[in-house]
Write a structure and sequence with these properties.
The complex is a heterodimer of chains A (725) and B (345). Chain A has 725 residues and is α+β, with helices and mostly antiparallel strands. Chain A contains 23 helices and eleven strands. In chain A, strands 1, 2, 9, 10 and 11 form a five-stranded antiparallel sheet that branches. Chain A has a four-stranded antiparallel sheet with strand order 4-7-3-8, with helices on both faces. The radius of gyration of chain A is 41 Å and the shape is flat. About 16% of the residues of chain A have low confidence. By secondary structure, chain B is mostly helical. The chains are: A alpha+beta (725), B mainly alpha (345). At the A-B interface, helix 5, helix 10 and helix 11 of A face helix 3 of B.
Chain lengths: 725, 345
Amino acid sequence: MDRFIDDLPPMDLMRSEKMMFVQLIIPVESAQRAVSYLGELGLLQFRDLWLRYERCRFQVKEQDFVVAFNYIHYDVFPLLQLNSDKSPFQRTFVNQVKRCGEMSRKLRFFKEQINKAGLQSSVHPVSGPDLDLEELEIQLAEHEHELIETNSNSEKLRQTYNELLEFKMVLQKAGGFLVSSNGHAVAEETELSENVYSMNDYADTASLLEQDIRAGPSNQSGLRFISGIICKSKVLRFERMLFRATRGNMLFNQAPADEEIMDPVTAEMVEKTIFVVFFSGEQARTKILKICEAFGANCYPVSEDLTKQRQIIREVLSRLSELEATLDAGIRHRNKALTSIGFHLTKWMNMVRREKAVYDTLNMLNFDVTKKCLVGEGWCPIFAKAQIQEVLQRATFDSNSQVGTIFHVMDSMESPPTYFRTNRFTNAFQEIVDAYGVARYQEANPAVYAVITFPFLFAVMFGDWGHGICLLLGALVLIAQERKLSNQMNLGIILSYFDARFFGSSLDIRYQFVPQLIFLNSLFGYLSLLIIIKWCTGSQADLYHILLLLLATVAVPWMLFPKPFILRKLHTERFQGRTYGILGTSEMDLEVEPDSARQHHEDFNFSEIFVHQMIHSIEFVLGAVSNTASYLRLWALSLAHSELSTVFYEKVLLLAWGYDNLVIRLVGLAVFAFATAFILLMMETLSAFLHALRLHWVEFQNKFYHGDGYKFRPFSFALINDEED
Amino acid sequence: MTFNIHGGYLEAIVRGYRAGLLTAADYNNLCQCETLDDIKMHLSATEYGPYLQNEPSPLHTTTIVEKCTLKLVDEYKHMLCQATEPLSTFLEYITYGHMIDNVVLIVTGTLHERDVQELLEKCHPLGMFDSIATLAVAQNMRELYRLVLVDTPLAPYFSECITSEDLDDMNIEIMRNTLYKAYLEDFYKFCQKLGGATAEIMSDLLAFEADRRAVNITINSIGTELTRDDRRKLYSNFGLLYPYGHEELAVCEDIDQVRGVMEKYPPYQSIFSKLSYGESQMLDKAFYEEEVKRLCLAFEQQFHYGVFFAYMRLREQEIRNLMWISECVAQNQKSRVHDSVVFIF
């Protein structure tokens, strides 16, 4: 049997790729190119050498002190300096990273501007001349400067335009108030009209307006007014505040503005309200003006003389149209600039992103003592060795470097990352497994089986094929499935057998795997057999009952006792041998030191192992029962589904059809369709998926899967682009 | 144990937020920064990253502080949106302190004829209310109350300080402390009403706050015209020092007498024992350190609202730290960088 297993063809997906730990020594002049070529290849995972000290310190705690200490300082990294006390912004290429960050900020700014202007940045990058980073940096700075300038110009224009627009509206509306209140206070207003604005002042700019109003009516008695415009949302509070400040001695008139006004900063349309406040007294006037200022209300003077009013309106209108033309021209100009940026935007963004990634990676490397080479370490799959070497050579050649890059394999005490080469189909299942835990390096990968079992279990639980034939089919599938119940569970244990073989522990096989298999099969294998026999013949097979039960009973202590005792025996032997060995070589202090430390670590604790084995046994026996029960959900879910379908069909559709009324029939049909779509299709899909997931994670994987590895994350431009998108 | 029905989600959120506070290692790196850009770069790796990433490169301290505060405000708003009674009221109480500070800031600023817009920018965003800009209109306290503050939650606290006196620096300072006294007492009462672990933890934190204010008032009023009775009136009517410590503090004439009073209280003995005689500069830092210690302890217990208060305070302390570090870096005073930074973890 062993030979049969060894002869099986190797499976790519079953074991993760064999990895190796490599060291690169790259001359400074070709470093940037080499790393960017490696990024295109995407098969090397760099390790951050600046963090190594921290990690080693951590490991020292975990593993044994002396070995790690020697390892760091003398054996493997003779060339390196430790940089533990330097913080991230003191690394070698930090200035380049900063520059890239600044450039990507500018690019984000362009993108935001383009989106705001409602333009589309072209998705397909235009093939323009290739720029290097410095040129791009200069270009970006120019573009940004230009854009900011045009923006501030058009903002100013917009401000003036808004003021004029508001003035126009105030004139139109407030004029109406004044005319309507004419009847009440003729005397005062005639007096007023003389005091308010001489038109000659006005023509210059709108910004003079506010000064005008301060210099406005100066008569000491009588009724006066202030007119202006304010955000609609603030009107209520504004009015209340005015009322309080003047103790009610005022008259407040308001009317909604006809047009919305664009806020120059946020570019949102704001609804405004025009108001006119009548009041008397100088003190009230200052108060009201202060309140206006506090609420951000803009005050505009309105003449009461109708002819003057018309004249002002005419002038305002002409200026408005002028400004509109200028604004439009400005916007066209800006949009043109933005479109030209938009053509290159995607390309530039990719480029900056790549460069930043390259420099980030370069920052993980370290200078060697001569300061002429960069030293990097990382993981790569063994099959990629040739490719990486080829790429490094190309980089050396392309950058005209005199010295080639040194690439060699090293030992590492860390466990390597896990890397499965997946395709589009298997990837989904690999992801499902990874969500539970990434496989330990070279551990059996449950995804291999999940590829088949997951859709299978899902299909079984959903058990529906279009509501007609499917009820029958579902029942058939159910029957077929029941036979396989225990077999699947066997698979998990058989996998643990492969695993144990792989990691070379025959002890586990003899005293853990075999009794487990017997226990499971004698109880539950028999169960499924029984079911089949019952279907076939209807007779009982009493004879085997007792035998199998006995076997199962024997399996439990078999599982429990031998392993710890044998382990103890083995340990005692080994320990004794070791002691003699050390006594023999006790003169060589230097070599003994790490050894003794390791011994300390392996200190044997019998009771601990016994308890561990006991827990394991109990867990297994209980797990066997509960897991079998868990697989019942296959049956339960599909049953629930079919029952629900029946209920909806009979109690809704058929019931409704029983009536001769068209409305009732339609309602019945609608309810039936709704239930089919949302409950039977959507909810049932979700629950079937959930339970398939559970069956894989809990019932299948807990039998063998450690899932405590870490994923292989190569430095790759493709991955970086995926993440950003 | 019905706490989790309403407060569980937010408690989880706030504990998650707390995990984002800068650690001693972060501060260590920040203190080594050479320029403000370095600080930005370091912060970009923390939770402040998204808030600073779009700032163009020549940074100012104010920008950093503004953006960091914005983050706190966003988090606060998020929590307030999700909160139900009485947690939402509790969260609102936290901001009243800022409101008082803002009112005082605007009133003082107007008194010295500063521009209102400029003053508004300096206000803490957590203490903003609708008609805050109108504060500039008021001439005296009565007007202040009648025009503006009657609409705000601060209105009840004003009952003690409505006078027709004109506003001047002294009066404003008295007003601030009276308001604060009323606020702390009200908050204290509210927490007592909530009961349970909230009352227990918050009464401890608020008592500390009240005592600290009492000490500060005493030290700041030494050598001013404030009479003993007036000074006595400004102390909050709870806390460890109430009532006997207050009597003694009220008659103190110099810092060493204050020290003598405070050393009778064991929790404060450790604070004052760190200071040399006659020194009051480092007192603030010592108090902040003690406060941070107490605030961190609030996270040790579950099912109470104290964590929200503690989180807000810790973040504010963190922003103060960042401001100090940035200022030191910007003004090339790196030797003083450790003077007022309080490590949170």
